[in-house]
Write a structure and sequence with these properties.
The protein has 218 residues and is of the alpha/beta class. It has two domains: 150 residues, Rossmann fold; 63 residues, DNA polymerase, domain 1 (Orthogonal Bundle), CATH 1.10.150. It contains nine helices and eight strands.
Length: 218
């Protein structure tokens, strides 16, 4: 599969956001725990919070907070909006990769389970808007990842259909499932939370660090 990746140039490269291109976990953890505290619930461990964060809020909060989920959503976003732009940090070598993709004129974008408005504010904060032709956040499609709808919405913007020449790069099992389910090429970046051995489905390519992606962009 690695040989085939090298052989064929991608028609588009799409990325997950949190923990793939940026580190913004502290605001997420702080906001989750503030929400739990405000509703009189037990705090979650960092591991529990990060595993839940791979899904969109509209998927996780109704299960976690039941009838109080809309109130929980309000508390979470109120806390998160105060701190997320101050604490967001690009992961090493990410901007270099984005520059290479732009120079090669490969359509590039983000499909994330983070709220679309917050996603765009973070991208603008980093000065990365120039790198992305496509941005799809949570709540913008009929359903969120791993459903097909965010991908179809994204590709419609550049007149493409799902296929193996569309690369999707992410950091967890949901991202792998999303790519494989929707007939795209799955590139998995190993990290502290998710290792190759933890995945239920096999990605097309596993990288230790996102900087290594440079070797495959032709």
């Amino acid at each position: 599969m690695i040989k085939s990746i090298v052989k064929f140039s991608p028609k588009a490269i799409l990325f997950d956001w949190d923990n793939t291109l940026v580190n913004n976990w502290d605001p997420i953890i702080i906001s989750y725990n503030e929400t739990l505290k405000s509703l009189g619930l037990k705090k979650q461990s960092k591991e529990e919070t990060l595993k839940n964060a791979k899904y969109s809020l509209r998927e996780t909060f109704p299960n976690l907070f039941k009838d109080d989920w809309k109130k929980a959503r309000e508390i979470f976003y109120k806390t998160f909006k105060k701190i997320h732009l101050q604490q967001i940090k690009p992961l090493p070598k990410v901007e270099k990769i984005l520059k290479i993709i732009k120079e090669k004129k490969i359509p590039c974008g983000v499909i994330s389970n983070k709220d679309g408005d917050l996603l765009r504010k973070e991208i603008e904060k980093l000065g990365w808007k120039k790198y992305f032709k496509i941005l799809v956040g949570a709540n913008e499609a009929k359903k969120d990842k791993p459903s097909k709808y965010p991908l179809l919405l994204a590709l419609n913007k550049i007149s493409l259909k799902p296929n193996k020449n569309i690369w999707y790069v992410g950091d967890n099992d949901i991202d792998v499932k999303f790519a494989k389910k929707n007939k795209c090429l799955s590139i998995f970046i190993e990290n502290k939370m998710f290792k190759k051995k933890d995945l239920k489905q096999k990605p097309d390519l596993v990288l230790k660090k996102i900087g290594t992606l440079e070797e495959y962009i032709k």
